[in-house]
Specification:
Strands 1-2-8-3-6-9 form a six-stranded antiparallel sheet, with helices on one face. Helix 1 packs antiparallel against helix 2 and helix 4 packs across helix 5. The chain is built from nine helices and nine strands. The protein is α+β, with helices and mostly antiparallel strands. The protein has three domains: about 150 residues, Sandwich (Jelly Rolls), CATH 2.60.120; about 55 residues; about 55 residues, Arc Repressor Mutant, subunit A (Orthogonal Bundle). It is globular, with a radius of gyration of 21 Å. InterPro entries: AraC-bd_2, AraC_XylS_family_regulators, Homeodomain-like_sf, HTH-like, HTH_AraC, HTH_AraC-typ_CS, RmlC-like_jellyroll, Tscrpt_reg_AraC-type_HTH. Keywords: Activator, DNA-binding, Transcription, Transcription regulation. GO terms for molecular function: DNA-binding transcription factor activity; sequence-specific DNA binding.
Length: about 270
């Protein structure tokens, strides 16, 4: 059984129930193999590994590898591009897979399974809704997880303490843009450019400054405006949803219910 979802910068895959593949390489991708159940029999550059649950292995770009798992085993594979604005180089410019960190890494299997499910659901919803902000936030979270796994979160590219409020004028410019254009399609790349930061560091600094992610911030702006329109106008719920940039009425309902605890219809009836 296989599950797979991919973007321009990451790929998530899960396999189980007696899966095997043939020797191959990924020229531009760094792969992290994470056995979450049973044993994964892995061969990397002619060296064999018996990877047990919770024992991961990194494949730098160009590494020849293949693996097999039995019927009672399962493995999660996370692939990220090494270079480019959405790759590992956006976390640390001089990053090179396999250099400065161990290829063997311990991890929490239950936590990886939970993360994988969250990432998969968010990507599927973001891709189906054609919402680049939602997709790019998952890409960021995957990069952050891989960075933490290999110990990069303690590197000099990270702030030791969160800033006291939003003092950076470039970050304020990005936030002002979000307030002006929250009813339009917004991408992390646009916002990062306004803030003069890489995509990865923009999401991190935004979260530190505001306590939330860019995607959740935009959703709140949209839901706040929807609440005002539900109170003050007779515009249909479907039209409000479309006017505020939601890809569908169902996406609007999910966001509104999550943030207010009630549906748009129920909220309007209370006014």
């Amino acid at each position: 059984m296989e599950m797979k979802v991919e973007t321009d910068w990451i790929e998530l895959w899960q396999g189980s129930e007696a899966f095997s593949n043939v020797p191959h390489t990924h020229d531009e991708w760094m792969q992290v193999t994470l056995p979450v159940k049973g044993v994964c029999h892995f061969t990397q550059e002619a060296r064999s590994f018996g990877l047990e649950q919770g024992s991961g292995l990194i494949q730098p770009p160009g590494t020849n590898h293949h693996f097999r798992i039995g019927e009672s085993a399962a493995v999660v594979i996370v692939k990220v591009r090494e270079r480019g604005r959405g790759g590992m180089a956006s976390v640390r410019r001089d990053f090179e897979a396999g250099a400065g960190h161990e290829l063997r890494q311990r991890f929490d299997a239950d936590a990886v399974v939970a993360r994988f499910r969250t990432w998969m659901l968010a990507l599927i919803q973001g891709q189906s809704a054609a919402d680049p902000l939602a997709v790019q936030e998952v890409e960021h979270d995957v990069l952050a997880y891989v960075s933490g796994l290999i110990g990069m979160e303690h590197g000099e590219t990270y702030r030791s303490e969160p800033p006291k409020g939003v003092a950076d004028p470039h970050l304020l410019r990005a936030i002002a843009y979000m307030h002006d254009c929250y009813d339009e399609t917004i991408s992390v790349d646009e916002l990062a450019a306004l803030a003069l930061q890489s995509r990865f560091h923009f999401i991190r600094s935004f979260r530190e400054a505001t306590g939330t992610t860019p995607y959740q911030y935009v959703l709140k702006l949209r839901v706040d405006e929807a609440m005002a329109r539900l109170r003050r106008t007779e515009t249909t719920i479907g039209q409000i949803s479309a006017d505020l940039g939601f890809a569908s009425t169902s996406q609007f309902h999910r966001a509104f219910l999550k943030m207010t605890g009630m549906t748009p219809k129920a909220y309007r009836l209370l006014q």
